[in-house]
Structures are given as C-alpha cells and as structure tokens.
Amino acid sequence: MPCIQTKVNVGISPEKEETLKKELGNAIALIPGKSDSWLMLTFEDNCRIAFQGNSQEPAAFVEVKIFGKAPDSAYEALTAEITKILGRELGVGAKRIYVKYEEVQHWGWNGGNF
Amino acid sequence: MPCIQTKVNVGISPEKEETLKKELGNAIALIPGKSDSWLMLTFEDNCRIAFQGNSQEPAAFVEVKIFGKAPDSAYEALTAEITKILGRELGVGAKRIYVKYEEVQHWGWNGGNF
Amino acid sequence: MPCIQTKVNVGISPEKEETLKKELGNAIALIPGKSDSWLMLTFEDNCRIAFQGNSQEPAAFVEVKIFGKAPDSAYEALTAEITKILGRELGVGAKRIYVKYEEVQHWGWNGGNF
C-alpha cells in the first residue's frame, strides 16, 4: 500500500515512463514490507513548479505515501534512490528535488480498509 | 471541511462528473459531522497511473482529507461506497482503487482557520 | 522545506504566475523559520473543482506542506494572506477557498533527508 506521486516540470515520454515504473518499482523495496506488487504510481509532467523562485530549470516534487510507518533509515535510502532515478532519467538536479513522506493510518483497497 | 480528490486514468465526461458530484456528496455523510454543504471535490481524469506495474486497465487514487478525526468504521464505510461509485460510474475495478485518508489538524476557510 | 500547492478552477496566466510566486514567497515567511529561499510552489489551473456542489464559480484548494511544526497563529496568518492573494490576483472569493496544512516529519532534498 504505497503510492509514489511524481510531479516534474519537464516532459516524461511514454518510454521514460516505462523506465521510471521499473526503477521506482525496485526502489520501493527499500521500505521494509513494501514491494512493486502493491505499488501505485502517478506521473504528472510539464507541471508548473517553482523552486527558490526559479521555474526555468528542471524541478520535481515527489510524494511518497505509505500505509503504516518505516524507520528513518529506509526513508533516507529511498530519497537517495529516487533522487538518482530522476537525475539520470529526467535530468532533474538533486538540489531541485523534494521528496516528501506521508505515513498513513487509514488506507482502503478493494472496497475495504487495511 | 472535507475534500475528496479523485485521480483516474480514464476519462470523466461532464455528465459523469455531475453524477459523481452527487454521489460523493451523499457518500461523505458516512463520516460523522460531514456533509455535502462543506465538501470540496477535485477531479483529474486521463491521469498517468500505474498499479502493480499495469497502466493499461482503469485505476484510481482517491484522497479523502478531513478536518479532525473519525472512527475507523466510518472510513471503512466510505471506502466501500467510493469503490462502488467508481466501479459503477467509471468502470474502475475494486482491486485497482486505493482510497487514502488524511486527518487534518489545521484547515482554513474564508480567511481563517477552523 | 515548505511547499505550497495551488489548485484553482480558473486560468493562471504566466504573468499572474509570476505575481503569485512573489506574493506566496513573501507570505511563507509568516511561518517561523520558513522563507522563499526553500519554498517550492506548484500551480494547477483550470482544474475541475466543486465546492458545495457548485463548480461554476472560482474556487481554490491550497495545500501547504511544511517540514516540522508551527504555532496555530502562524497558520492563521498564512491562511489570511493566501486568501487575500488568491482573491486579489485570481478573483477567488474567500468563501470558496480551502487552505489545508500538513506538518511533515520526513522530507528529502538533495538526495538526503532533513
């Protein structure tokens, strides 16, 4: 029951999206108990994003939402990995990427809550 | 002070949006103290959403944000109802729908906070 | 490490976006320890938003996400300021604006977490 939502101000081609799906699918396993088999991903490209007043250079806002909790070290590792992925695949600099985490207590799937 | 945000990877026609507005407006009353008279709804259709690596079949990510707290049973009932609505109106299968809840402590309206 | 995400059902011209960037950049300083130098902004215009069943009139859903916590009075002041800005620049009435706050414990930037 994790969800990673990626907003970037650059384009994401369908091919890049496939690559991102695979790589984020691997990355989520850095959170104990989470895997690609429960992962939902959303992608929004060409967003209007400004960071430090600058909306010209590539930038990303990534929201990682997980059911339950995880140790700080897992979030650290996931931030490092997501930052690498977005840098390599979309050319977003590490200093222009925020990764925000939300630990969720109530999460529904298949008509019921976990 | 609830808000239901619906992201789907299928289209939502203006007619369907009207239907969803009515049905979600009724559903929110499953949360004690909440009603359509304070409900904000946002709809995003044709989103890029992948679940379990699959972005072909219909899928939905729904975020329910409420001011304050509610009993687990209310969230259970709302998940069931939202899942039914999205299945019936948009053809999204229950196993492709996440409904995530956020209990909010600070919420502003009309220039001040509740 | 704050982020303000603005969704409105009216258009935001590039010129208005520049104005909003400056004004929200000033407003964030109402939260102790926060400033434009760490602020990320996202803008989504022409969104599908309904409030109290009405999707015709201008409406806005603003999410303020901050790393850590702030006193209630700071959130009060920021709600008042954001509401003024959206009214003046985009013509959204105060009674059609929600400003929702999220206090975040885990937040990454530059490949690591704060």
Automatic annotation (TrEMBL), chains A, B, C:
Keyword Metal-binding among UniProt keywords: no
Keywords linked to the UniProt accession: Cytokine, Isomerase, Secreted
PANTHER family: D-DOPACHROME DECARBOXYLASE, MACROPHAGE MIGRATION INHIBITORY FACTOR
Signal sequence, renumbered to the chain: none
Organism listed in the record: Caproicibacter fermentans
Name of this protein: L-dopachrome isomerase
Lineage of producing organism: Bacteria, Bacillati, Bacillota, Clostridia, Eubacteriales
Location of this chain's protein in the cell: Secreted
Annotated EC: 5.3.2.1, 5.3.3.12
